[in-house]
Design brief:
By secondary structure, the protein is of the alpha/beta class. Helix content is 40%, strand content 13%. Helix 2 packs antiparallel against helix 9, helix 4 crosses helix 5 and helix 4 packs across helix 8. Bound molecules: pyridoxal-5'-phosphate (PLP).
């Protein structure tokens, strides 16, 4: 008897996970790896987070929470918007999610129907494309480059043929680290609103910026239908706690609540309790940003000497996206050789860009300073 595998489930792999697997195999065979592939903070979660979790583990039953998440955490996040951005966001429109990954699933399900068309930047975070595909939503991958600072812009969106139902932007972006200015965020959000295009703003790298702060699309009077997605995985250094949040427009809040009730029941309870403490750890979190900046500066100084001279801006996040077209047209093979020959893991651009990704790769500098120095040394010797 032949069983079918549904076509919508046959989405592309998240290639960085495959690279991590190859790196793990190498480590298991006793050969070390410098991890420039992984886009996550290293080290422990902030102390107060761990203490809050310990206390909750010992004293609380940790059952389900209400579907939109623990009220005190939602209120704390609303306060964060007032404090960090000076915008007013009602706690009732904040939904806590199982990482921002669940936020994307919930937002896409609530906002888009099968056959709708949603624009995403190429290069961009691969899961946008792959989740949309699984939901039967057409992902319109829009090539971007230096002309729009690697971001979608009103000009870029105007150039797309056919009707658009949505657009996903990320600032700072993965993999390029490029950012939209406050003016650009407002312009994009206002234009999308007027066109009836649902803007999904991925703000998960907010906080990890070098120089100017990232602008939020939350609370913009001109964009009341935008969805804002954020996470505790990056700036807040709570990656494996699997927690994120959304700021929802009024028309989607109930739909997302019902979806969450049925798909997840509630986000992880222990993580929700612990996450409230992370807003009291800003000194610790800022010290991490300083370390990322030092790592970035080391790589910016060293990589050109290793043959990686053409790099996207890296205004924020912890990535450097390199054009390696002078070295290869097959970034997957290039990264496999780099791992095999010098033990440095990086992510091939094919993960992020269906058009040009064979000629690019991404380095993550979320690791230790010592790893950056050693990686640069090996890459220069490998050249
Ligand atoms: C741009 C972007 N959005 C979303 C995510 C998903 O993160 P999480 O589910 O841990 O919040 C990632 C993870 O790397 C990312 O880079």
């Amino acid at each position: 008897m032949a069983f079918k595998v549904a076509e919508r489930g046959a989405i592309a792999p998240f290639i960085v996970m495959d690279v991590m697997q190859a790196a793990a195999r190498r480590e298991a065979s006793g050969r070390g790896v410098i991890h420039l592939e992984v886009g996550q903070p290293s080290g422990l979660a902030p102390l107060k987070v761990r203490e809050a979790a310990r206390h909750a583990l010992l004293t609380q039953p940790l059952g389900y929470t209400v579907a939109l998440g623990v009220e005190s955490l939602r209120t704390r996040i609303a306060r964060h918007y007032a404090h960090a951005y000076g915008v007013s966001v009602p706690a009732e429109r904040i939904c806590i999610t199982t990482g921002s990954s669940a936020g994307f699933l919930l937002a896409f399900l609530a906002a888009f129907a099968p056959g709708d068309r949603v624009a995403v930047a190429a290069p961009g975070y691969p899961a946008y494309r792959n989740i949309l595909q699984a939901l039967g939503v057409e992902c319109v991958s829009v090539p971007v480059g230096p002309a729009s600072r690697w971001q979608l812009s009103v000009e870029v969106l105007k150039g797309i043929e056919g009707k658009l139902d949505g657009a996903v932007v990320a600032s700072p972006s993965n993999p390029t680290g490029s950012m939209l200015s406050a003016h650009e965020v407002a312009e994009l959000a206002g234009w999308c609103e007027l066109q009836g295009i649902r803007l999904i703003s991925d703000e998960i790298y907010h906080g990890i910026t070098f120089g100017r702060a990232a602008a939020t699309a939350a609370g913009l009077a001109a964009a009341p239908h935008a969805v804002i997605i954020n996470s505790f995985s990056k700036y807040y250094a709570m990656t494996g706690w699997r927690l994120g949040w959304m700021v929802l427009p009024a028309d989607l809040t109930r739909a997302v609540e019902c979806l969450q009730q049925n798909l997840f029941i509630s986000p992880p309870t222990l993580s929700q309790i612990a996450a409230e403490a992370v807003f009291d750890c800003l000194d610790d979190l800022e010290a991490r940003v300083t370390a990322y900046q030092e790592n970035r500066d080391i790589l910016l100084a060293e990589l050109p000497e290793a043959g990686f001279a053409r790099l996207a801006p890296s205004d924020g996040a912890f990535y450097l996206y390199a054009d390696i077209s002078d070295q290869t047209g097959d970034s997957r093979d290039f990264c496999a050789r780099m791992l095999d020959e010098i033990g440095v893991a990086a992510t091939p651009g094919v993960d992020f860009d269906p058009y040009e990704g064979g000629r690019t790769l991404r380095f993550s500098y979320a690791g230790s300073k010592a790893d950056m120095i050693e990686a640069a040394r090996r890459l220069k010797a490998w050249r």
